[in-house]
Amino acid sequence: MYKLQFFAILIIALFSCSQKKTKTPSLGQKLPKPNIILIMSDDQGWGDLSGNGNTNLATPNIDKLAETGVTFDRFYVCPVCSPTRAELLTGRYHVRGGVYSTSRGGERLDLDETTIAEVFKNAGYNTAAYGKWHNGMQPPYHPNARGFDDYYGFCSGHWGNYFDPMLEHNGEIVKGNGFIIDDLTDHGLSFIDENKDKPFFLYLPYCTPHSPMQVPDKWYKKFENLELGLRNRDSEKENIKHTLAALAMCENIDWNVGRISEKVEELGLSENTIIIYLSDNGPNGVRWNDGMKGKKGSTDEGGVRSPLIMKWEGEFQPGTTITQIASAIDLLPTLTDLTQIDYQPKKNLDGISLKPLLMEDNPDWKDRLVVNYWGRKTSIRSQQYRLGFEGKLFDMINDPGQNVDISEQKPEISKQLLEAREKWQKEVLVELPKNDERTFPIGHPDYNFTQIPARDGTASGDIKRSSRHPNCSFFYNWISTNDSITWEAEVLESGTFEVELYYTCPAEDLGSTFELSFGENKLTGKISEAHNPPLKGMENDRDVRTESFVKDFKRLTVGTIQLEKGKGSLTLKAIEIPGSQVMDFRLLMLKRI
Fold first, then answer.
1. What are phi and psi of 236, to 5 degrees?
2. CA distance to 44, 170, 335, per residue, from 117 (Å)
3. What is the pLDDT of residues 378-418, one digit of tens each?
4. 60, 138, 255, 451: most buried by Cβ count inside 10 Å?
5. β-bridge mates for residue 151, sequence order
């Protein structure tokens, strides 16, 4: 009898332990530091996953990640790319870090901000980022200077070609290998292999389904003539070609997420690796998003709600859905808490640790507010309500599509959220300077390369930019010696630099002489070799783009120039133009020698 009671008690105890989300190590046992794999897609909406009810596509690998991990049902990011990246990196609202635009320097994260990569690197992790950075190009804004040991990808906000594109590896220009998402994933897989026996932090900020709408035939064939079963709430505004391309790009992302998951399992790292998946903003087109209002660029629900999936085998309860609201600002404090890194931030964080929601059955969790801001529009989200930027109040539980303004029916709640918005704007938004006084740095002493692209330059006279979207643009129509391209720059340490210039020029226009100057120092060069490839990109586009097409620009070693420490204008001007134009100009690369 007593034996039966003993075994019954033992079985109950074992069953109870199996239901807990946390593990208790043996006395004196030191658990290994868990690895982090952080995957973020670009312009993929909450609704662009089959696991979220979209029958237009299949994303089995991301869905499996959710089934075997934890899903945050109401997770919020920023309306556009660079702000979300800044908040993810710092745990602070993006305006605090000086991010106010997506190009021309406004995407840069202030240098007094501490990034998640720096935190993990200081804690002994090997760190890498492969993909779209979008928080600064020239060191010390470059990812290598913000905590990432290895970087491969592009630092701009968008790229003009996804097949064998011009990319960079730790600052040096290289050529990509195949379709960009597959290529970035290949680098991620190699990094995991190389660091399987030591803790690592891997950041994979993919660049799709952001335009240009390019995807290999393998993925597009399924969608080319697909009849969409689900449409946007404003279906008359939906561009079907754009939607079909975006869905194909999402299926390609899903395949690559599956490759990452398989590698982790293959190496036996599942129980010691936290995998996170999210997007950086709402969908980049009018397509199905479960009836939510808004898309990319909007502070409404559809513009800022993102999937967030987190898996840690043996630690997180599989298949759990967390309904409490959360935000990109929460990722840094959450991951440092989960990995037991003693991070004492120099500046107050806006985010909070989500560990209680992930690890406890009944956490003591208080309601909170999450702020979404972009383009002078501020929206406030509580657990139940959203105050839109125009002051309307919506019950997000009973009216998730934001159809009915209830501010008059709920005056007290409306007042509370209006006051919270005003307080946030006075305390946080005020930190963003009215004028950006930051220069473009040149010649950081710890890094060999400084890339000076057309994107960051200002052209005078008749010189034109290839697109109103600067990120992957080039300058053309350079027809006068009175015109120039300038960059407001600062040489961080004096030195001698080798200068390379990327250009195109037809044979009939050869012979132009140009001058690069900074202060009293000058370097003269000449376009003496023809290189006139056609514009490219349209042959792979599934839908018409608004951004610039690209070219295969030729590299010209101009010579060396001595640059003295200090601020000034870096100027590129023509001295002689024997033909009809100087060149099409893409970028300068300065290498300290």
1. -65, -15
2. 24, 15, 11
3. 999 999 999 999 999 999 999 999 999 999 999 999 999 99
4. 138
5. 129
User: Domain 440-592 carries which CATH code?
Assistant: 2.60.120.260
CA-based nearest residue to 374, from 104, 107, 47: 107
Kind of pairing, strands 273-279 and 35-42?
A: parallel
Q: How far is CA 313 from the centre of its chain?
A: 26
Pull the structure tokens for residue 519. 């202060």
Inform me whether the pLDDT recorded for 590 exceeds 80: yes
pTM of the model: 0.94
pLDDT of 431: 87
Nearest to 17 by CA among 361, 249, 322, 312: 361
- Report the distance separating Cα 360 and Cα 356, nearest Å: 5
Structure confidence at residue 214 (pLDDT): 98
Residue in 393, 390, 427 with CA at minimum distance from that of residue 412: 393
Residue type, 509: D
Contacts for 468 with CB less than 8 Å, ≥ 6 apart: none
Element (H, E) at 265: helix 240-266
Tokens of 253: 């992302």
Q: What is the CA radius of gyration of the chain?
A: 26
**Which pLDDT does position 26 carry in this prediction?**
36
Domain 31-292+309-360 has CATH 3.40.720.10: yes
Confidence check: pLDDT of 87 > 70: yes
Confidence of residue 136 (pLDDT cuts 50, 70, 90): very high
* Cβ-count burial 360-377 (b if 16+ within 10 Å, e if not): eeeeeeeeebbbbbbeeb
222-228-233-239 Cα dihedral, nearest 10 degrees: 60
According to DSSP, the residues that pair with 281 across neighbouring strands are none
pLDDT > 60? residue 274: yes
pLDDT at 12: 37
Residue 37's Cβ-count burial label (10 Å; 0-12, 13-18, 19+) is: buried
Do residues 581 and 478 touch, judged by C-beta distance below 8 A?
Answer: yes
**Of 343, 303, 308, nearest in space to 326 by CA:** 308
Q: For residue 440, how far is the Cα from the chain centroid?
A: 21
User: Which residue shows structure tokens 């300068």?
Assistant: 588
pLDDT tens digits, one per residue of 512-538: 999 999 999 999 999 999 999 999 999
Per-residue model confidence (pLDDT) at position 31: 59
Q: Do domains 31-292+309-360 and 440-592 have the same CATH topology?
A: no
Q: Around 216, how many Cα atoms within 13 Å sit in the side-chain half-sphere?
A: 14
Neighbours of 259 (CB within 10 A): 15
> Could you give the C-alpha distances from 311 to 119, 277, 315, 492, 502, in angstroms and in order?
21, 9, 8, 43, 44
Tell me whether strands 305-311 and 273-279 are parallel, antiparallel or unpaired. antiparallel
Give the active site residues: 81, 134
**Token couple for 238:** 């939906």
Task: In whole angstroms, give the CA distance from residue 328 to residue 234.
Answer: 28
DSSP class of residue 256?
Answer: H
The pair of structure tokens assigned to 299 is 């502070």
Percent helix, strand, coil in the chain, to 5, is: 25, 25, 45
Q: Which among 246, 233, 165, 161 is positioned nearest to 543, based on CA atoms?
A: 246
Residue 485 has pLDDT above 90, yes or no: yes
Domain residue spans of the chain: 31-292+309-360, 372-431, 440-592
Q: How confident is the model at residue 584 (pLDDT cuts 50, 70, 90)?
A: very high
